[in-house]
Amino acid sequence: MLLIPCPWCGPRDEAEFHYGGQAHVPYPQDPASLSDQEWARYLFFRDNPKGPFAERWSHAAGCRRWFNAVRDTATNEVLAVYRSGEERPATVEPRQAVSARPAFEDEALSGPIGGLGAEPPAGVEGAEPLQDGTGRGGGGETTQPFRHATRGRVDRDTPLTFTFDGTEYQGYRGDTLASALLANGVVQAGTSIKLGRPRGIFSAGVEEPNAVIQIEEPFPEPMLPATTVELYDGLVATSLPGQGRLATAPDPARYDAVHAHCDLLIVGAGPAGLAAAAAAARSGARVILADDQPEPGGSLLGTAEHLDWVREVTEQLDAAPEVRVLSRTTVFGYYDDNHLLAVERRTNHLGAQAPENVSRERVWRIRARRVVLATGAHERSLAFADNDRPGVMLASSARTHVNRHGALPGRHAVVFTTNDSAYAAALDLASAGLAVTAIVDTRPEPGEWAERARAAGIEVLAGHAVTGTQGGARLTAVTVAPYGESSGQREFAADLLLVSGGWNPVAHLFSQSGGKLRHDQTLGSFVPDSCRQAVEVAGSASGVLDPATVLAQGAAAGARAVEAEGYTPEAPRLPEVPAQPRPTAAMHVYVVPGDPDAPRFVDLQRDVTVDDLARATGAGLRSVEHTKRYTTAGTANDQGKTSGVLASGVVAELLGVDISALGTTTFRPPYTPVSFAALAGRDRGALSDPVRTTAIHEWHVAHGALFENVGQWKRPWYYPQDGEDMEAAVLRECRATRESVGFMDASTLGKIDVQGPDAGVFLDRLYTNMMSTLKVGMIRYGVMCRPDGMVFDDGTVIRVAQDRFLVTTTTGNAAAVLDWMEEWLQTEWPELKVHCTSVTEQWATVALVGPKSREVLGSLAPQLAVANDDFPFMAWRETTVAGIEARVCRISFSGELAYEINVSPWQGLALWEAVYEAGAPYGITPYGTETMHVLRAEKGYPIIGQDTDGTVTPQDLGMSWVVSKKKPDFIGKRSYARADTSRPDRKHLVGLLPEDPGTFLPEGTHLIADGVLLTPPVPMLGHVTSSYRSAALGRTFALALVKGGRDRIGERLYAPVGDRLVPVTVASPVLYDPEGARRDG
Amino acid sequence: MADTALTAPLRSPLSHIADRLAAATRTSGGAIRLAELPFLAQISVRLDAKGAAAEAVGLALDLQLPLQPNTVVRAGELTALWLGPDEWLLVGPPGSERDLESRIREAAGDEPVSVIDVSAQRTTLLVTGPRAHDLLAHGCPLDLHPRAFGPGRCAQTTLGRTQIVLVARDEPRAGFWVLVRSSFAGYLADWVLDAATEYV
After folding, report:
1. Whether the predicted interface score ipTM is above 0.90
2. A253-380+507-580 — its CATH code?
3. Which residues of A touch B13 (CB under 8 A)?
4. Most buried of A38, A69, A374, A515, CB within 10 angstroms?
5. Is the pTM of this model over 0.90?
6. In whole angstroms, how far apart are CA A890 and each of A623, A634, A900, B15?
């Protein structure tokens, strides 16, 4: 959502504005002097540059001012705005892209690059050693054999019962479905989508490609990563064969949305995000900290480090009045002008206990002055043989399951890594009691971390790689060989293989913001570089993995952001980070040599292997965007979070190029799947679109009216009685109105008050006919056209006073007509002293129609002289009707004697009821829009938008009389001299009479010349625009636009209806009372 | 007009929803208060802010028309809302529209002004209480923080899917006036009542 700065109101959401096309295209001084070509150039030709473009905009939902904006058409950035009539600013500089890590060069890299901490958390030494192969262990709990005795942040006092694939299990509050399954010894959580291979829990977060499950109860929801589903009592879930099922019943939960504004939005409450928030918290700046987990801490929850500091900062944030911490909230989209969307999961974790009046999910529409992205990093996988067996897991994720949830993903682990970070995980897991049999490191010299592991009794196989795995529902063994060789294989028994291929900064949101990524040689991945929006990236999202640097960078980014907004940040206390082993550079490995017959999966969720990508490059594809579409790698609902960079690396190897030259595929919102229910929010059912009603609406409802939508208005369509169908009801309403009297609610017509000394001049320019000569007290029908001469709207104009007119518009076009008037006034004719104001709802209007309408009006308005001579057609009078102050207009849209009585809507219902009562002796009949349409069509009155489609001139409608020959110019006039508008074969509005008076022509039916269907293409002469059954004519009839129609009156044409050709006769559009005696009498 | 009042009591656009607004107010336990303020006099005034009429009208009403965009000026029972550089909405107590209209016309004399009674064009919904801001944030894209939209501010914007004129009342925490086109009032009231679900 762009933020467009209105020159008057300041920055507002783009949705408040209307686009008006290229600016500085003035209306020609003297259109009559232009050649057809010059006029056509003015009408139809506009620039279409790449880059800065001056445009007209209207603040339509605000101050209704037209103004000009210079917008860069390549970036959508609004470079300048200026008022209508002002010169375009000379030079306008686009925003410069700035570094996503502006002070990076200045920041002391206080620690070495490496994994996030290695010190085992305090208080875990008591972990009991695990017994081999018994399937029991951890705390010795009988129901959760893989539950660690002490570790984890789960609430062991709140056991929860859940069901997975029909088996009942126990877990704890604080578990995810994945961790609870692991604690129960369940690793396999599904089968793969194409190959049906067993797949296990692979991660501990949103990046999960495998464990995508279906929730069955309390409400069916497909394809949720089990690693993100918080466990609740009574949860029933099933594994999926890669694809879920949508619910067939409507979702009963409530979903809503809110708008939020802040000086600083921090995405991610890990170490960097918390440090940023701590720096900003007490500055007075408005800060939102959004994090997708139930509690702050991010990666620290997984490593169980610095948790006292996390608590300290959390308390500080809770106490700060201008800080809002949104937990369980995923920021999923980053749009223009720092507009970000997030979804908050508010009651999902409560299961059946969720309160009904609280929305289940809430979409946050956040407009932030500045953004700090502290979104962390995802561990990357490696493409080795049979790398998809249940029990293969990302190294840091295993650590998270143990420290955060107290769930053991296995008992005998082998670690396969290309970098230092997996050592910290291995050491920590070993201290938790897992048997880490070996660390397999592709690097020939793994350095100090390897020494530390060896010191802890773990065998380190340097320069080795995993070349294969064994197992079915669970991993049983891992085969290892020297890297790149097939000899010297060793096999390890293991139920867990921990993998680390390096780290990918979570750059999704940054990329969505328009930020550019660059390849980082040290990291072997893509990191944020620069962006034109006010965003910084901090922590491992920026590619920095060293904990001290992560914290410092977060604090600096938070401080810089609030400082830039005029607040004074403080230096927050950051935790002491213990000394780390000296790092050894990571090795960038993507494809691992191994068994040539075993699949090496790149995208687990889409079952895409290295061989699949090789087929893509073999077919000549050279871009990762193309290999993605060829193989579907990265297109599943995990959007390739663990596989995207891996796929790029594999493709680079296959093509023999460097990965930096390939880049990544484009990141698009949403970052994680968002349900349609959440996006729809409350804009469903009755609230999906505004319903406009008149002051008399309740009466229509009470009297059984069926309604028609006209724009957003609900208009009575017809009033069926005693089991009448529509045809019978409409025929009855038409007959009653033509024979005696009917009445309808005409309040929905648009009404615009046009006031000022130049009002007459203004209307003369807008309408095709002359308005300035209208006398006060009289009314004139008028037509408005676009400059191309095509009819745009019609209605009546009442002269209220010398300098005041009341213009009516069609119901659906009121806003467009007012916009149109304002555009001309403000941009072309600012010298005219005239103002236009909508008064549509200031009046309720009752149309009183039929030969007895004069009697009814007379009885209600004793002071009004209603005789034809006193109150002629196209006059208006002020009087009281039923004791209510009223303006009565004698106009007719039916061809009958008719009046429109206008009163305050506060008294509209009273007037309506009085008319109903006074008309009772004449059998007064309420009628709806359908009867109105029939009556007007019998008279050949067109409805703009039904009988016209923007390609029809007044002359085409047979209304040359409404086009002034006297006025020097009006909008559209020049176009009537164009060759195209004076062609004899233009489509004219004509009447059509089916030869069988009972045959009904559907609207839209084509018309052709021949009574036998020729081989297509058959020349089309026109089409039916309106079609009805007429009570007055005792037959069906239609209006149609027909080529040269007026010259065909009396001709027979054919209308293909279904498989029949219906013969019809072309007639004058005026089929009823052509002399107008009824209307004028 | 006298006999009119006898024969036809006035009905406001939200009269049929008054009970539901009152019920929501009651059950919210003070969190929000919703009520229609019906029949307020509303006059649209269009004139050249730099012309003679601006000053004359100001004197006649004893109220300076606000020149700062999106602000209001209050004097006695009158509130003048800036709607555009040459456009104001004057809001006064019910029944005062004729008097206001004629006072403005008289003051303007021969100056080209446009004065229109638009009292029935919009109705006014009072939204107040400690959760008023949260309630409106469900559908109003504007920043309603007291720093950005405190007393003295007004704005034409959108709420839900309809246009409104939003006015911050003159006391901090006194909530808002939501002026809405009468034909949209029923929709907006339904929308607001639904948005209030969590607070009642």
Report:
1. yes
2. 3.50.50.60
3. 695, 905
4. A374
5. yes
6. 72, 69, 6, 32
